[in-house]
Amino acid sequence: MSALRQDIAELVAQDGPITLETYMTLALSHPSKGYYMTRDPFGAGGDFITAPEISQMFGELIGLWAQEAWRAAQSPSPLRLVELGPGRGTLMGDALRVARIAPEFLSALDVHLVETSPLLEARQRQTLVNAPASVSWSADVARVPDGPAIIIANEFFDALPVRHFVQTERGWSERLVGLDDSGALAFGVGEGVEPDLTVAAQEGSIIEIGAIGARIMGDIAARLVAQGGALLVIDYGYTQTALGETLQAVSRHAYVDPLEAPGEADLTTHVDFAALARAAAAAGAKVQGPVTQGAFLRQLGVVERAEALKKRATTEQRAEIDIALARLIGAGDPKRDMGELFKVIAVTHPDMPLLPGFFQ
Question: What is the mean pLDDT of residues 92-97?
Answer without folding.
Answer: 98
